[in-house]
What does this fold into?
Amino acid sequence: MELTRRDVLAALAASGAAAGASVSLASDPGDGPVGDHEVDTLVAVARVVYPSAVDGVESFVGQYSVERARDRPEYASGVADAVAALDEYSRTWEDAEFVDLDAERADRTLSGFEVDTADPDPEGSDRERVRYYLVNELLYALFSTPTGGSLAGIENPQGHPGGTTSYQRGPE
Amino acid sequence: MNREPSERVDVCIVGAGPAGGLMADGLARRGHDVVVLEAGPRFDADHEDRERRMERSIRPGHGPDSVWEMGGERDAYESTGEQYYPLNAARVKGVGGSTLHWQGMVMRLHERDFRLETETGVGADWPIAYDDLRPHYADAEDELGVAGASDNPFAPPREHPHPQPAFEPSYSDSLFADACEELGIATHSVPNARLSEGREGRSACVGYGTCQPVCPSGAKYDATIHVERAEAAGARVLDRAPVQRLEHDDAGERVTAAVYATPEGEQHRQEAREFVLAAGGVENPRLLLLSESEQYPDGLANSSGLVGRFFHDHLFAGVGGTLDRPTRQNHVGFNTTESHQFYDQPPDGSRGAIKLEFLNYAGPSPVEMALGGDDWGDEMLDRIRANYGTHVAVGALVEQRPRAENRIRLHPERTDDHGNPVPDVVWSLSDDERRTIERANEIQRRIMDELGADVEWTVGPESTGPAFHHMGTTRMGADPESSVVDSQLRTHDLGNLTVASSSVFPTGGAMNPTLTIAALALKAADHVDERL
It folds into this structure.
């Protein structure tokens, strides 16, 4: 399933970062804590944690992350801090930053860091912050969109204002 | 913000929830000078702020009480009864009060609820009848913008249709309707305090699916609507101004001032001609008990000794499981079908009221499963697909009878951020209530069996919990020796002190209480207006 601009707007709406379809999506990270490296790292994490049926990951994550970080310095610094923690772990065990790992090593690195079993906590340990600011951030963005919800069988997922008709419809 | 007291105030209202908001609005629009003192903050009302709170409610990593910033020394409490009571999950302090996080179900009590002792020999009678409250119920439905239909054969008589059309039944409702028909159980729509059509600049429901605890669209009613309307009519609302105690005159017949604190550490006295307590079923009795004086050593308005007594709630009962076919859950966060067939208590009083609810949000949602798992990628998606989409559940509210031993009292040792004793919730269940829960479970299991469901969980007598409806702690009655307020919601002891809250309910049936709170607040506003 292809993630579209509509999904970016839906994900942003679910996080209080955009008000409607009229918002213009930036692709340039600008000067804040979430720069090109942070966005590239989020894309790399998404390639691990998103189901393989999802297409359009790079533009979805890029546009979502840049817009999400705008005007939210606390969130942006949380992401940057989590990326730094992930890179430190990655350099220690794989001699490379996370963005430079191939798919298998990236998955192994996240698992080795025990991010899969970590409790998401914005104030927690390195792995807990990676879980919160990177992994869960991306999963929340995906599964609060119609495309992400539809992967799981719900076209109006929690967090998405998809109207009041879908709940009345039976299965197709 | 200037938090100095106002001069020449007609009415001082403590609490900016639905009762306080409705009274402030009604009295300000009738030309009275109104001041509202609210302990909690005024939250940003914009769309983005609500969406950020919604995100906090969905994403693990934030405590559920943090969505509306409950907790800490301000909200400290104890729960020392047989049954633990999670008080801070049950309320919100702030402009809008607990309607900020409520579900938004709004039913009228039944006629029998007002004369329960006469009809069944148990519980208590109200000093007013359904017919006394009936016009106020209609007004309350209009104020809250209730979406409902007149298809409930068990509902008490009403004079007009609801102000908004009911939400259509869900797909899973249709499955339940067939099963219930086979069993001879009538189902019907649910009155919801959320807009099914846009009204007065407010959006109709757009299906965020997170009604409880956050509605980002504003379609769900919350009391900020009436607080803002009251301010537009001239009322003054001070947030973060927790009232510490009420003072009375030398004769002990009238309240003279509400003493409140400010974030800057100051204390002020707000004088007024009339005072209204609208701080809910826990803080109302607590404030009266904190207002002890030489003349009233057991607390204000407490000559009966019943302030804080008869605390009761509704009890949850439920059965859930899965079907072998899709059920389409979690598209919306509210319910669209109920059955009140088992509501009215039998004449021998052998069980309490039961209200059946057919859930539209049974089982986990995909986003919750994604965020809470220990896998990712295709493995995660396989898990979500395997676990989403076939859940069903029948819930119920079960009546709890008022018993004097269940109470809100001041804790003898623990104090809050202002040095005041914290509320101590003393709560327990009776054998009668356990039996009523078992009866609810029996009905629920019959329905699930008829559906062919594989039952996976039951919330029964041993695992039940409160529905977060705080009732009974300043009960209404005609006799000053056995009640705290009269039929006008005025305390028997002090002539200018009104209590507008579910704390005045002598009994609570099994209906969600906010519509009755609103109706009583509108009635109380009329009485205060007459006295002014």
Notes: Residues 5-20+27-159 of chain A form one domain. Helices of chain A lie at 5-14, 36-49, 57-69, 73-94, 103-112, 126-143, 146-152. Chain A has a mean pLDDT of 91.
